[in-house]
Design a protein that fits this description.
2 domains; O-fucosyltransferase family protein; 5-stranded parallel beta sheet; globular; transmembrane helix; glycoprotein; alpha/beta; glycosyltransferase; binds 2-acetamido-2-deoxy-beta-D-glucopyranose; 12 strands; carbohydrate metabolism
Length: 436
């Protein structure tokens, strides 16, 4: 009897150790299965993320460096283009002004021909809030001292400079000589030479110092309240100017769209032949509403989702989206006609921005200034449901001949991996990667 029990004990131990060995030696043990669902049963937002971007502690919670005892002069930042482009330039401008130990004058927001309007900085943003939020980061004045108040600032154009551009070397001498300069930040600047306090001022300006004027905020809130919840804010850029600018050619457009694009082209001719194929595969072509609808479906966004179109009324071929996603709303459908017709481009852009920051989720079909600003502000607020739809993956997979379910599966995988790893949003210097 004892012999049998020893024998069975041996068998039990042997079996157990064999089982243990299998568990420990197999390359993928049951304990380390990836948490990423392999299929697209759930929507993209329910995928578990590994990395997210948050505002870096060094500026959000860091100690402030005291301002210099003596200012080197006054700087006005001159901003041009669309609202979010001006905002980006203001961000950079504040960093430059702090780097140069200058005093900031309220920025000039230019009347851009494209937007056809006159909204200046104070028409869109709350000036007192701006000054208060920049307190300690940089000195800001509403009025110039009398001895220079009558002067036009000396204009330093940095915007066209490419490559290495150092503001202390190139701009400080002008500031010291003229005492009051205006500048437009260069596209590429040597931020590596920025002092820590200049970077801190830049981040604070970009993400912590701007809010809409009271009257605009009231309007924006009305708009948000009118949208059924939850909703996805979608920035779909398929307007004639955008398509013309991209130099891409599209098949299957209506004659009206073709005409609108041709009218916007000017001397920017579309690429043709092999160059066009390469251009498209590099992800340079705006997604059409059709393609966007395929992408949203690939990401398992239900077709009855409420979608706010954060864009103007000029989107072409919109039926490609609205025939599949049937709950699409726009500003013009939600605001009263009178409200809407009185609004300027900047005001409308400000509303889209506001709604997109407050939406449950945000997706962009392009990687423009608004998209970058919205993505950063959403990260600042801890809203993680933000995604850039990949034009490059779409072009790549379609050129491989993928269609239907196969195409969607490939698109799902590419976007899922970006979302999990926090890739594709390219948040600027003020944000840090955080392992979840
Ligand atoms: C700005 O002031 C700091 C001291 O507050 C000084 O270290 C720095 O060199 C100054 N920079 C310029 C460009 O004047
Ligand atoms: C620009 O605004 C002016 C005055 O409000 C108007 O007459 C004109 O038609 C507008 N132009 C465009 C292109 O919207
Ligand atoms: C969008 O899809 C519809 C239906 O499949 C098609 O008729 C139309 O040409 C497509 N438009 C574009 C811009 O691809
Ligand atoms: C969308 O459809 C699903 C299932 O058909 C339903 O559970 C959900 O409530 C619907 N959502 C909206 C916003 O209508």
């Amino acid at each position: 009897m004892s012999v049998i029990s020893v024998k069975s004990l041996f068998i039990i131990i042997f079996t157990l150790s064999l089982f243990l060995a299998i568990i420990l030696l197999s390359p993928s043990t049951p304990f380390s299965l990836p948490s990423i669902p392999p299929t697209r049963k759930l929507d993209i937002w329910s995928v578990r993320r590994i990395v997210e971007w948050r505002p870096c502690k060094w500026w959000l919670q860091g100690r402030l460096t005291s301002l210099p005892a003596k200012s080197n002069g006054y700087i006005r930042v001159d901003c041009y283009g669309g609202l979010n482009q001006m905002r980006r330039d203001l961000c950079d401008g504040v960093g430059i002004a702090r780097l140069l130990n200058a005093t900031l004058v309220l920025p000039k927001f230019e009347v851009a021909a494209y937007w056809n309007e006159s909204s200046g900085f104070a028409d869109v943003f709350d000036v007192d809030y701006f000054i208060q939020q920049m307190n300690g980061f940089i000195e800001v004045v509403k009025e110039l001292p009398p001895e220079i108040a009558f002067k036009e600032p000396f204009w330093v154009d940095c915007s066209k400079r490419k490559g290495q551009f150092d503001y202390i070397e190139r701009v400080l001498p002008s500031l010291l000589e003229h005492h009051y300069i205006s500048l437009r930040p260069a596209m590429s600047q040597r931020r590596d030479r920025y002092s820590q306090y200049a970077k801190v001022a830049l981040c604070q300006e970009c993400y912590g110092a701007l809010r809409l004027t009271k009257s605009l905020e009231v309007k924006a809130l009305q708009l948000v309240e009118a949208i059924p919840k939850p909703f996805l804010s979608l920035h779909l850029r398929f307007e004639p100017d955008m398509v013309a600018y991209s130099q891409c050619k599209y098949e299957g457009l209506s004659p009206a769209s073709m005409e609108a694009i041709e009218a916007a082209r000017g001397d920017r001719k579309p690429w043709i032949g092999e160059a066009a194929r390469i251009w498209r595969k590099r992800g340079k072509c705006p997604l059409t509403p059709n393609e966007t609808a395929i992408l949203l479906q690939a990401l398992s966004i239900p077709t009855n989702t409420t979608i706010y179109l954060a864009a103007g009324d000029g989107i072409m071929e919109i039926e490609g989206l609205t025939s599949i996603y049937t709950n699409v709303v726009t500003k013009s459908s939600l605001l009263s006609g009178e409200d809407f017709t009185r609004m300027h481009g900047n005001t409308k852009a400000a509303l889209d921005y506001y709604v997109s920051i407050d939406s449950d989720s945000y997706m962009a079909t392009y990687f423009g200034n608004m998209d970058k600003m919205v993505a950063a502000m959403r990260a600042f607020k801890g809203c993680y449901k933000t995604l850039f739809l990949s034009r490059r993956s779409f072009a790549e997979f379609s050129s491989q001949g993928l269609k239907g379910e196969e195409l969607m599966q490939a698109l799902w995988k590419a976007h899922r991996d970006d979302f999990v790893m926090g890739r594709g949003s390219a948040l600027p210097d003020c944000f840090c990667e955080f392992k979840l």
